[in-house]
Amino acid sequence: MRDAARLAGIARTVLDFCSFEPATGADRAPAVREALFTARGALWPPARGDRLVPYETAALMLHTTRAEVERLLYADSPGERLLVRAPRLTGKVLLDRYNLALARGVLLDATTVTLTARGGWRDVFRAIKLARLMYTIERSGQRSAKYRIVITGPAHGHLARPQRYGARFARVLPLLMRSKSWRVDADVLRNGVPHTFTLDAASLPVSPRRGRPSYDSRFESALATEFAAKIGADRNGWSLHREDTPVAIGDTLFIPDFTARHRDGREAIIEILGFWTAEYLELKLEKIRRAALDNLVLVVYRSLDAGGAASTAIEVATDAPVVWFEKKPRIGPVMAAVEKVARRPGS
Fold first, then answer.
1. 11: burial class by Cβ within 10 Å (0-12, 13-18, 19+)?
2. Whose CA is closest to 272, among 284, 290, 286?
């Protein structure tokens, strides 16, 4: 029985990798059923030998063939979809994906989930926001580049069907696994009995498919490319990390574009202001002001400064150094500003 359940779960995992499409003409199935059932009703009660008569009558009504009526009768049901893409999976990949599905199943009964990771936070917080989960955030040690997020649900103990809320926790797990290192600690309540559940990158080494880095703007891409090309392999002790330093500001979150991190522990936050509207600039600068970051470098597109409006707004919002650029940001001036403001967390 245990093997049967396990095989069923593995089969479900394989099916999740497959792509299915409705059969050709499946959208006509409701009209075919209506015609056939109408023809059948006209010959009720059925008599011996008339099984095919309703099909032939329906075919005449629809200007098609009896075989086509039989083919389309239930062509819109899920079980009639056709396989159009099947995965090429090794045994290890399949087992890892199956274990991921099991882990997400455990989180259905979670009441509180603590996430610890290094980087990849933008996708995680998008999932948290879409799932309408409440959270708190803190750094995992002053010298660490990891952050700890505790996500909970409002009035969880008063929910009639708490597993619906637990399903929201489960949505976050695949995105968390994109981080370089991650860990999940969950409080689970199953059949009224509390349990603890722990999972990390070592115990579930599943690496979701990654393409090239996806940047929000060509300015971000240009800065990262120039850093890699001009700072060189030595990098003078510096490394550039995209969107891996979440900053909690009340009930909102600010995730700067880049963090420049030195091997001696110093950090600087880099935020790029590219194309904007007046409303966007106001909201962005208000978030920067509330974040009160003393190691921030603003990299600003020169064309924004029509009539000096951007300069004035930035000066009011923050004392952070501003690096202006004409066509694309240059890594030299940016790193010069980084050297001036970089500091160790907590110092």
1. exposed
2. 284
What per-residue string of b and e applies to 163-179 under the rule 16 or more CB within 10 Å gives b? eebbbbbbebbbbbbbb
Task: Give a three-class secondary structure readout of the chain.
Answer: CHHHHHHHHHHHHHHHHCEEECCCCHHHHHHHHHHHHHHHHHCCCCCCCCCCHHHHHHHHHHCCCHHHHHHHCCCCCHHHCEEEECCCCCHHHHHHHHHHHHHHHHHHHEEEEEEEECCCHHHHHHHHHHCCCEEEEEECCCCCCCEEEEEECCCHHHCCCHHHHHHHHHHHHHHHCCCCCEEEEEEEEECCEEEEEEEECCCCCCCCCCCCCCCCCHHHHHHHHHHHHHHCCCHHHEEEEECCCCEEECCEEECCCEEEEECCCCEEEEEEECCCCHHHHHHHHHHHHHHCCCCEEEEEEHHHCHHHHHHHHHHHHCCCCEEEECCCCCHHHHHHHHHHHCECCCC
Model pLDDT for residues 167-200, shown as the tens digit of each residue: 777 778 877 877 777 888 988 888 888 899 998 8
Residues paired with 294 in a beta bridge: none
Alpha carbons within 13 angstroms on the beta-carbon side of residue 252 total 10
Residue whose tokens read 């593995």: 10
pLDDT recorded at residue 232: 53
- Out of 245-259, 271-285, 292-306, give the one with best mean pLDDT: 292-306
Instruction: Give the highest mean pLDDT range of 71-75, 243-247, 262-266.
Output: 71-75
The pTM assigned to this predicted structure is: 0.54
**Which residues on adjacent β-strands are paired with residue 164?**
none
CA distance 172 to 124: 6
Q: Which of 186, 103, 178 is nearest to 151 (CA)?
A: 186
User: Rounded distance, CA 36 to CA 235, Å?
Assistant: 74
Q: Are 162 and 156 in contact (CB under 8 A)?
A: yes
Average pLDDT of the chain to the nearest whole number:
80
